[in-house]
Write a structure and sequence with these properties.
Strand order of the largest sheet: 1-5-4
Radius of gyration: 14 Å
Strand content: 35-45%
Oligomer: single chain
Number of helices: 0
Structural class: mainly beta
Length: 70
């Protein structure tokens, strides 16, 4: 398992909430072509926790993760 844990602290906030989280790909060298156009795509991502002003996320190796905070 090559997941890494990332703590995101939003200073000045008493609490935060996640509006949306997506993961684009888990394969480092993945790319889309005309013949295979769904190797890199957005899917729901939920391997995170929110506690007060901190978001703790487990990020898969080679992935791109977007977490939108409100």
């Amino acid at each position: 398992n090559d997941n890494k844990t990332l703590d995101i602290v939003l200073s000045g906030k008493d609490s935060v909430s996640v509006e949306e989280a997506t993961i684009v790909t888990e394969e480092l060298h993945a790319y889309n072509t005309f013949d295979e156009n769904d190797k890199v795509k957005e899917v729901a991502y939920s391997d995170y926790q929110v506690s007060g002003d901190t978001i703790t996320a487990k990020i898969p190796a080679g992935s791109v993760v977007m977490i939108r905070v409100k």
